[in-house]
Fold these 3 entries.
Entry 1:
Amino acid sequence: DWDGNELLLSDVLGSDGDEVGRGIEQEDERFLLKGFVSELPPREKQIMEMRFGMDGYKEYTQKEVADTLGISQSYISRLEKRIIGKLKKQIEKAV
């Protein structure tokens, strides 16, 4: 600041340090997640991108994804659960 005191990011943003730290952590996790999703097999990657509005897709419901891919909604549900579990493990290893 003008008095020579150290200015912290939390001072500039008007929030406490914990909130700023959480935001940075969330951004890091999003970056990791995007990288892990990009490494999925093509069909799993497409399902995740469609369901969660990634890589230019709007967010689709499980039913919409199922109709687009020509499979049942219950199968999409099972696949999604398995894929999310796989991604969680990868993020936990990386963090």
Note: The helical segments are 9-13, 17-38, 42-52, 62-69, 73-94.
Entry 2:
Amino acid sequence: MNARRLWSRILVVVGGIAMLVGAIDPMEGSLLILPGSGLFAIGTFLGQNERWLIAYRVWVFVLIAIGVGALWGLSMVGGIGGSSGVSPWWAVLMMPYPIGWLMGIWGPESPRWMLWLGIGVGLWYLTIFAIALSKSAFVGVNFVIAIIGVLTIGGCINSLVRDRSR
């Protein structure tokens, strides 16, 4: 195995692990997820994969970067909703972050280990949802977390089944 191929595999594994570990706490974890998605894209490029796959992984990185930028920007101005005076609709600016993360986890050519661990992250999100409901915490955000958990599990299972049929 040449050095370029070795580095490609290392970067894909390290980037994938960073994206999964960062998802345990999506806000603070965004500081792991963003560089992780960048490493994942660079690893794909170094592996001399097809151009469409490289473009896909770069697009995942761009979506995550836009969403994380909005997340931290809105956090710096005091958050959204409640007493902050910022309409909850501004949260729409953060949507590229979970969309990009989902695309990165169960997108095309995702390693099988990443799909299996992605199911674990989805189950974690459903656990967070159940705990928050038992504590009667803010319900709107809880449902978003549950939806992301279900989408993660469903997307990972779909990718595993699709890969198995090839």
Note: Helices lie at 3-22, 30-46, 51-76, 96-106, 112-134, 139-164.
Entry 3:
Amino acid sequence: MAGPAATSVAARVAGSVAAQQFVQSAAPGRPACSLSDGCPRHTYFPAVLLNSRLFAFRLHDVSGVRRFPAGADQEWSQCRALGLRSAAAYLLVFDLTCADSFRYIRAIREQMLESRDMQRVPVIVVGNKRDRVAARDTRDCRDFSATVRKQWKWPYVECSAKFNYRVLQVFRELTMALDALRQEELAPATETSAAAARSAADGGLCGHCAIQ
């Protein structure tokens, strides 16, 4: 696609409507690609502008996948060209009205941590169907939030894809996390360039040296 390179993002579990709402809001009129390779996936190509930088996404909706592949061979056998193990970031979306869906993403999280280095891979956990949460379910919602934020140490957002409530915030959080990683990666190069510039300004001499 034209413009900046697309960042591959995998969205899982109850995320189809959220992905569609985001694409319609962020890039109305842009087509989604439904792949016919036997893989339960739709792919969208939205873009987000943050801090004067354009982030182009390749968003894979893979809500039909049963487990996170433990290796490349397993990924190929389960669903070729899925790209789950190489995604730059993940959205784990669950149904706030269904505790089983939260247990499912908990299992997916454990599989991810066991099979991939997640140190520099952003993950946003999203509780969907906020509009359908009854008063009796608010305690469960608090438990979900506490688990994700305090135990897992991952960002957590509740939204309603049906009413497009806080859907853009979900993807803003994701974009900010990716931008923070980019800034960290650029920092060493920036420091090296600044040091070289200072050295050149001093005639190529080390700041601790002097000509006798």
Note: The radius of gyration is 21 Å.
